[in-house]
């Protein structure tokens, strides 16, 4: 028999966003029902952020062992035990999993239902065993790997991020279809672990990022031995696997032992019966307003399902907004969020706000750009790794529009700019901080300081100093 209950809030999806809403609401004393048809923790814990970074860490260790000669350290032949690498990947997942577990959330007072849920009407969702009427609902179903409609692909075995971490043996030759963040990260990792790797991309790799930053990554991938086939459109897939692609007027055949499809992600909305609840959606995701409310005013959508960006940290930010809006009736504005992004290849690329090209499209001539190379950073010199740069984009009056960092641990250094944009900090406040020496993070202060350099050392300032020196 189907049990019928009433709740304050019902959540579909136990990924980062759904779990955050559930924890907040339950700890505030509300009756919360959480549906999850798959693994607790969602894609990030089980198939995305966590396993990929564990794999990248192993690949980085192998690369470091091979490349210490410039620092006077030479190791013997590097051996990769792929079974132990994958054991590390899955042990990392197991270690983190209790934080997202059913037991933990039931301990917080959440009723967890490990079944698929669907809308029955505008204020009811149901699974096989339970029917829930709630005051508010949250769609937090995340996304899945997109599979392009390429002839022959459906008849050819292929990997996605959901299956690649189940490999038992290292691929001999891995074809990566897609040169975005996932394709670049995993392609480089498998190359450093010992696979031959070819990345096939219809445009340019990391096409969303600053072209100079993508160029830094491109040079490293080539140095690693990754074969890059950019601006290659795949026409069909043949058994093997073999990709038949077109580049200009030429048709090329790309063969390998394994195929990884990494062409992006698509919102997971199948089976939700959104039409029954009056919820509008399209290929990008559920349509939401600035409060993350859908066309059904009882229902919120967050994270990847909302089509506003596919980042775990964005889903967490959405969850915070929903708790404020749904539980405290406070105004929120998801459109105003300043969301950083990081591609965890080596070197990393981190960015927030507008890139240079977009800033010039929006602001025309009222744009100033500061660039500081890691070659001028003392810590980078000491580490023997001067790849990359920082780029600060502002208006002529110094309003921060965006920042791109390309270099070692760039993702760890974008935080300061995320704070600056979220809090409306001025460049003068950035220059006023004391940065510990020697750190790569000094690049942030140097970028801010460069904005003032022309005025500080101008002829006008020199004349002023020549007068003031007599009164000092």
Automatic annotation (TrEMBL):
Q: How is the cofactor bound, in the record's words?
A: Binds 1 FAD per subunit.
Where is the FAD/NAD(P)-binding domain positioned along the sequence? Answer: 8-319
Identify which cofactors the protein needs according to its UniProt entry.
FAD
User: Which Cys-Cys disulfides exist here?
Assistant: 44-49
GO MF entries:
flavin adenine dinucleotide binding; NAD(P)H dehydrogenase (quinone) activity; oxidoreductase activity, acting on a sulfur group of donors, NAD(P) as acceptor
Q: Which Gene3D superfamilies match?
A: 3.30.390.30, FAD/NAD(P)-binding domain
Q: Which family does it belong to?
A: Belongs to the class-I pyridine nucleotide-disulfide oxidoreductase family.
| Protein name, as recorded | Dihydrolipoamide dehydrogenase
Q: Give the organism's phylogenetic lineage.
A: Bacteria, Pseudomonadati, Pseudomonadota, Alphaproteobacteria, Caulobacterales
């Amino acid at each position: 028999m189907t049990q019928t209950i009433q709740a304050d809030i019902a959540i579909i999806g136990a990924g980062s966003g759904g779990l955050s809403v559930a924890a907040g609401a339950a700890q505030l004393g509300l009756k919360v029902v959480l549906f999850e048809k798959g693994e607790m923790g969602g894609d990030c814990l089980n198939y995305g952020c966590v396993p990929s970074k564990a794999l990248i860490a192993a690949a980085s260790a192998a690369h470091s062992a091979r490349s210490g000669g410039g620092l006077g350290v030479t190791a013997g032949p590097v051996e990769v035990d792929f079974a132990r690498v994958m054991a590390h990947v899955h042990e990392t997942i197991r270690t983190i999993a209790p934080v997202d577990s059913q037991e933990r959330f039931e301990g917080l007072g959440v009723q967890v239902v490990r079944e698929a849920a669907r809308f029955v009407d505008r204020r009811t969702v149901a699974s096989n065993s339970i029917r829930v009427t709630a005051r508010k609902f949250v769609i937090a179903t995340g996304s899945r790997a997109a599979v392009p409609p390429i002839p022959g692909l459906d008849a050819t075995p292929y990997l996605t991020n959901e299956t690649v971490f189940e490999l038992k043996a290292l691929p001999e030759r891995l074809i990566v279809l897609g040169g975005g963040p996932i394709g670049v990260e995993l392609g480089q990792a498998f190359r450093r672990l010992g696979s031959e790797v070819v990345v096939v991309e219809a445009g340019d790799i990391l096409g969303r990022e600053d072209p100079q930053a993508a160029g830094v990554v491109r040079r490293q991938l080539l140095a690693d031995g990754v074969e890059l086939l950019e601006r290659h459109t795949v026409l069909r897939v043949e058994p093997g696997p073999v990709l038949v692609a077109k580049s200009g007027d030429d048709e090329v055949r790309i063969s390998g032992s394994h195929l990884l499809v990494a062409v992006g992600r698509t919102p997971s909305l199948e089976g939700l019966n959104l039409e029954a609840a009056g919820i509008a959606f399209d290929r990008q995701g559920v349509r939401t307003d600035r409060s993350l409310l859908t066309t059904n005013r009882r229902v919120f959508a967050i994270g990847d399902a909302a089509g506003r960006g596919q980042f775990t940290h964005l889903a967490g930010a959405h969850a915070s907004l929903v708790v404020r809006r749904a539980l405290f009736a406070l105004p929120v504005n998801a459109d105003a969020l300043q969301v950083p992004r990081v591609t965890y290849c080596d070197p990393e690329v981190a960015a927030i706000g507008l890139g240079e090209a977009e800033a010039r499209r929006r602001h025309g001539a009222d744009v100033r750009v500061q660039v500081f190379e890691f070659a001028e950073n003392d810590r980078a010199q000491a580490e023997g790794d001067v790849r990359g740069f920082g780029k600060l984009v502002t208006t002529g009056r110094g309003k921060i529009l965006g920042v791109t960092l390309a270099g070692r641990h760039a993702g760890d250094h974008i935080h300061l700019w995320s704070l600056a944009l979220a809090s409306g900090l001025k460049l003068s406040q950035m220059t006023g901080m004391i940065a510990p020496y020697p750190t790569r993070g000094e690049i942030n202060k140097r970028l801010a300081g460069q904005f003032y350099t022309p005025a500080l050392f101008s002829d006008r300032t020199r004349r002023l100093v020549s007068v003031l020196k007599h009164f000092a």
